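User: Second chain of the day. Same drill as before.
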Amino acid sequence: MKNQLTKIIYPFVETSSGAAFEIGGSNPLLQSVVKDNSYPVTGHRKQLNELFQSLASVLPRINHLVSAESLAMSDSIIVSAVYIAIGPFFVVESGEGEGGAKGSKKEKENVILKTFGKSAMRGLRLDALALIRSVSLSSR
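Assistant: Same format as last time:
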């Protein structure tokens, strides 16, 4: 899960926001997925959406596992869970569509909104926050 988030999902989000260009460049393949609207690229975005949905559905399950009092987690598992949970808070996401008029042209053009949905990153952050809370409670 950690590798899929850090190597595929987060770079896609950051490339669409333009932050990757400011940092020193982005992967040309990701740039084409963000900017191109041809049929094959739309298929790639659908695959990204499916991957994102799968990862987002796993996060609550990890939270449930960490919260289980009957299981003792090793330090390496706890560190991995914390790393997964902190990640979404450091992803630079486009601010387009937020704070503006609903249905605005920028909101319609935002590739993240079209690929993952309006509240996808917000939902991922909420699940990550719940995981952080569970880890902190289980380590007491």
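The radius of gyration is 17 Å.

User: Great, on to the next one.
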